Automatic annotation (TrEMBL):
Protein encoded by which gene: thiS
Protein name per the record: Sulfur carrier protein ThiS
NCBIfam families reported for this sequence: thiS (TIGR01683)
UniProt-listed Pfam families: ThiS
Domain of life: Bacteria
Length: 70
C-alpha cells in the first residue's frame, strides 16, 4: 500500500488501510504544536474524525498549516 502526504509517497507494506491519525504520525517526526488542517483526496477531515477516517492505497493527504500575512 502506498499513500501520499503533501506529495511525498509513503509505502506501508501489506496494510490495506490506516487511519488519518496514524498517517499523520508517519508524516510528522515531532509532535505538532501548531494548528493544521487535513484534506483527504481534497475533502476536509475534521480533527474529531482522524481516528475513524480510513486512508487506502493511492489516497492523498494534504496537511495545511495557516500562513500569516496581510
Amino acid at each position: 500500500m502506498t499513500i501520499h502526504i503533501n506529495g511525498k509517497a509513503y509505502s506501508l507494506g501489506e496494510a490495506e488501510y490506516i487511519s488519518v491519525n496514524n498517517a499523520l504520525i508517519l508524516h510528522f517526526t515531532e509532535p505538532q504544536k501548531t494548528t493544521f488542517a487535513v484534506a483527504l483526496n481534497g475533502d476536509f477531515v475534521g480533527k474529531a474524525d482522524y481516528d475513524s477516517t480510513v486512508v487506502k492505497s493511492g489516497d492523498s493527504l494534504d496537511v495545511l498549516q495557516p500562513i500569516q500575512g496581510g
